[in-house]
């Protein structure tokens, strides 16, 4: 569930209120019978557990997040537990979820929750967004999924569903527009519980049925109201502007290899051990420098004989 940046745009065609209500009802009814049984949705979930799931899910699929989330919550069941954890332990537990800065931000967030809110995640949007690593999307998700409060939860899945159903286009623009935000807001019911149900149901519909590459329209509860389907599935007008996420040979891959080495290492890794993970000296040094700058790695020993480890 990746948050998205915003951009200005003209208004979209308004969708009639009765149609919005019908789309919502069909989606929520479908959700009742099809929602995945995920631990962060259980009755005994905590706001902190929901936050951990949202941060992990930002760039990592559910299948990889679920075991990591369970292990994390067993080890650090409350913000106070995580706040007291050593950064190196947090980074090891993050393991291969990717984008490990998220792990340190989550720990920073836990510390702020303890210091500012007595260890309880706030319900207020402004207070949530003042916490480290919590932006518009995550604050909205925590309000809806943890506290059952009304908010406009607009991740890539929901944006795609609304783009297709209401706008009749294959995929939304690369950056979130103000018009999309208004459209999404029009779908959110006034009642807290109903709004939280719509948030979860629309997101699940995007994740399971209205997927980016191969939507399963035959299984879709709103197929009879879908503007993109009615228009004959016109092609993605923004295709040329979309970034493709390559992996092999990128700095992300090199950073991942260095982090994997240090997660496994029992002692600080000398420079020759770091050199063994990637043969391109310039790229490897650039990546190591960026990991040091991000606080994900620390240097020990002298500049003549440096060694590297996860931050203590
Ligand atoms: S009918 Fe197809 S394209 Fe339209 S919302 Fe359903 S799955 Fe998505």
Describe this structure in words.
With 312 residues, the chain is mainly alpha-helical. It has 2 domains: 1-244, Endonuclease III, domain 1, CATH 1.10.340.30; 251-309, Arc Repressor Mutant, subunit A, CATH 1.10.10. It is built from 15 helices and 5 strands. Strands 3-5-4 form a 3-stranded antiparallel beta sheet. The model is unreliable at 1-8 (pLDDT under 50). Bound molecules: iron/sulfur cluster. Iron/sulfur cluster binds next to helix 9 and helix 12.
Describe the structure concisely for a colleague:
The protein is mainly alpha-helical. It has helices at residues 17-34, 47-57, 62-75, 79-83, 87-94, 101-117, 125-129, 136-146, 156-167, 178-187, 192-208, 227-230, 251-264, 271-275, 281-293; strands at 6-7, 176-177, 269-270, 298-300, 307-309. A 3-stranded antiparallel β-sheet has the order 3-5-4. Strands 1-2 form a two-stranded parallel ribbon.
Which terms would index this structure?
binds iron/sulfur cluster; 3-stranded antiparallel β-sheet; 15 helices; 4% strand; 5 strands; 312 residues; Endonuclease III, domain 1; mainly alpha; disordered N terminus
